[in-house]
Amino acid sequence: MSSYDDDTLPLQPPIRLPxxxxxxxxxxxxxSFEEVSEQAGELKPDAEDSDVLGFWAAHCRERLAGxxxxxxxxxxxxxxxxxxxxxxxxxxxxxxxxxxxxxxxxSWLGLWVARQIIAETTGQxxxxxxxxxxxxxxxxxxGLRSYPEAERTEELAGWLKGRGQADAAAEIASALGxxxxxxxxxxVEVLSTALGxxxxxxxxxxxxxxxxGAVIAARTGRDNRRPAPEEMSWVLVDMAAALLEFGGxxxxxxxxxxxxxxxxxxxxxxxxxxxxxxxxxxxxxxxxIDHHPDEKVVSAAxxxxxxxxGLADVRL
Length: 316
Description:
Layout (H helix, E strand, L loop, with lengths): L19 H10 L3 H8 L8 H17 L2 H13 L9 H5 L13 H15 L14 H7 L5 H12 L4 H11 L5 H13 L2 H11 L5 H9 L8 H18 L3 H9 L4 H10 L8 H11 L3 H21 L1
Helix pairs in contact: 1-3, 7-10, 9-10, 9-11, 10-11, 10-13, 12-13, 13-14, 14-16, 15-17, 16-17
């Protein structure tokens, strides 16, 4: 997602889905499947599971796109992960997306369809438990960004199967400099808490690297690695950007930058961001411009953003 305002959808936790065979069987059992498939005339009663799933996904998207109320009902059930207070619409139960009896929760099909719709409308790919086992380290860290602790431990255990702990730590460490701020924060946490001595050693080996080493030291509390003056702004932006990426409260982002400083001190610190080459600097400054309560800080952020863009043009 490219905007970071109050309407941004926070990163959603992973869902659990059965195998395609089970999903296809659920489609065939949906109350309206036979009628819809006969009217469409696109499927053979012996169609492959993949054809059945593709047909039903397209039909559900088309049906929901024509009724905003139905679409919102489905999305609310997905986002809340709680049962509906009253019986859902007959259309959603007919499509097999919601249980027809209490508790009125999304079915496997409902989770599956809602996940696709959210990806198409927001760009957010909600992870499926177990789907990261064969991913490379960068994709693993990207996927783990929204995992609660228990699910993260489970997904990581699947990824570690067949990998030696030292090799796994080295692979994750090598990805830290290339991934997004939140994925980097996840990687640092995984290495420092989940991969034992090998993980912590892999982090230690990165401490001397410019910028990345300073971020690692800040996130792991290593006082023996002080950031150089030119690294301070990079660390500040990286930490604020991780909060932005998660889609949390804007207030938390502003507090992470203020670090207890008064408005004058904040304005002075923000002025330095004009020279920061972190790829998220512009977005962090824009959040301050749009949401910071102190006009002095807002003014400093505007000036820093103008200078940042001017310097970018010079570099080009």
